[in-house]
Design goal:
alpha+beta; Rieske Iron-sulfur Protein; 3 domains
Length: about 525
């Protein structure tokens, strides 16, 4: 098996039984904020035009590069589609012209004429209703795991497919905390140090759990070439940067006693074989030039930046002009969603001030109302958003502000207390379909069940705790009378205790009917 790294989480996997193009990303993402690091704009894209299969892990624009997919990839290519609770990814791919879709049941290994593929989707609220996913690709010579941004909840299920030869593992930051938050510098530095350590420790934990022979740092970090964002780059291995590069993680693996770390850059090929075990790494340039990317990063990024500054200037000229009545337009869009999600709004339980240019809007989740801020009403969260980008989101009725604004890092935020996950989950779920999934997840996380149904001698919650399957259609009581199996994915629950045989973090509400 040969794997060619094409940048960030992008891979081109070639086997005797076919090829898979994974998450190709070339066009700068999030309104020109994120660029591929190291750069991949010199790669030969033509060889990526006709893969046997295309896999896009999720809809974030550093993985779903619509301009590249539209221009370069043959639209007859079969698409390996993760099993997500909403059809957003499939819809987006079909809008680009990809009509040959292979639906991949969660965790199920498919044999595609000798090419074996299994996709593991994660759909917790923290993943957003669009979800995230990891893929295992195997043939008779090797097996690789591409984790993308995904944090698999069931590593045992992945390992059950067989030994992993290569794992491509995210280790760096892909978040706006704490870099955009207003706080004392020493407090922000401490929070960033903790964030950096947590993400490195998490990646080490996955490396141990997966047990692959080789670990390839992947899916980050991006680099920031816009002068407004330039200081977010980790030029000198600052301990309070949340964007450490691959060499930092490889040293951490060594310090933790984990062998087999591999440095790869765009254009690197990895020829891997399971038996006899072998790995041949071929870089697209001499080793000293590869090292210089990381040891003299500032100079490398300055040259990279000079090539792209004209593109950035043109891109910004396309941003729309802000329009009046921001409060009214947000209310028309968001208030129906708030009404649809009372448990989510109650859990958020606060007022949020949105400032965009000279307009100030209070989003009151307690009373599910949006209006102009009167200058005196207290708020517990503040988002200072760039007016042109918020205008772009409103005009396009984007369903995910994280993907379309927050990940750009082109905003500022303030809060007096802890992070409110439900708030940002709401802002990732700005459509009726997504908000319904979020509302059920929030209710389940608080032990609240919207609806109970009768199955045999039991009343059980209607929606499966695993992936919100409708148990009135897919639930089946076992012969013992005390076991429920969701036939959609095969997850099994002990109704007497509510426990799940497949995962410790999934429980079902049930009671026996007298």
């Amino acid at each position: 098996m040969r794997v060619t790294v094409i940048g960030h989480a992008g891979l081109f996997v070639e086997t005797e039984h076919g090829s898979v193009l994974c998450d190709p990303w070339f066009v700068p993402a999030f309104h020109g904020s994120w660029f591929v690091f190291p750069r991949n704009d010199g790669l030969d894209k033509e060889r990526l035009r006709r893969p046997d299969y295309l896999y896009v892990s999720h809809l974030h624009y550093d993985h779903f590069d619509a301009p590249f997919l539209s221009e370069w990839v043959d639209k007859d290519t079969p698409v390996l589609l993760p099993e997500f609770p909403t059809p957003d990814l499939e819809k987006a791919l079909r809008e680009l012209g990809f009509g040959n879709v292979v639906h991949c049941p969660n965790g199920e290994q498919l044999d595609l004429d000798g090419l074996q593929v299994a996709i593991f989707a994660e759909t917790a609220p923290s993943d957003g209703p669009i979800g995230d996913s990891a893929v295992v690709i195997a043939d008779e010579t090797a097996r690789i795991l591409n984790m993308n941004d995904c944090r698999p909840s069931d590593v045992a299920a992945i390992r059950s497919l067989g030994p992993i030869d290569l794992v491509f593992l995210q280790f760096s930051g892909a978040m706006w905390w704490p870099v955009v938050y207003e706080m004392p510098p020493e407090e922000r530095s401490a929070a960033a140090r903790a964030k950096r350590e947590a993400q490195l420790a998490r990646a080490v934990g996955y490396a141990r759990a997966v047990g692959a022979r080789h670990v390839v740092p992947s899916a980050g970090p991006p680099c920031f070439l816009d002068p407004e964002l330039w200081d977010f780059n980790d030029f000198d291995r600052a301990p309070d940067s949340i964007f450490p590069d691959a060499t930092v993680f490889l040293e951490r693996l060594d310090a933790e006693g984990i062998e087999g770390g591999v440095l790869a850059i765009p254009g690197t090929t990895l020829d891997v074989c399971h038996e006899p075990p072998s790995l041949t790494v071929t870089h697209p340039m001499p080793d000293d030039e590869v090292r210089a990317i990381f040891t003299d990063k500032r100079r490398y990024l300055e040259r990279y930046q000079a090539d792209w500054l004209p593109w950035l200037e043109v891109m910004k000229q396309g941003w729309p002009a802000p329009q009046p009545d921001l409060a009214g337009r947000l209310a028309a869009w968001w208030e129906p969603l708030m009404t649809r999600a009372p448990k989510t709004c109650a859990t958020i339980g606060r007022a949020v001030l949105i400032r965009a240019g000279d307009q100030e809007v209070l989003v009151d989740f307690v009373n599910q109302r949006i209006g102009p801020w009167d200058g005196g009403t207290e708020y517990q969260y503040r988002l200072d958003l760039p007016a042109p980008l918020l205008e772009w989101c409103i005009r396009n009725r984007v369903v995910d502000l994280s993907n379309n604004l927050f990940l750009s890092l082109r905003f500022r935020a303030w809060r007096p207390g802890a992070y409110c996950e439900e708030l940002f989950s709401f802002l990732k779920a700005l459509s009726p379909e997504r908000i319904d999934v979020l509302e059920r997840s929030v209710a389940a996380s608080h032990g609240e069940i919207d609806e109970m149904i009768r199955l045999g001698d039991w009343l059980v919650q209607r929606w499966c705790p695993h992936r919100q399957a409708d148990l009135s259609q897919f639930g089946e009581i076992g012969e013992d009378g005390c076991t429920l199996t969701c036939q959609l994915h095969g997850w099994t629950f002990d109704l007497s205790t509510g426990t799940c045989a497949n995962a410790t973090n999934r429980r079902i509400a049930a009671r026996r009917v007298d």
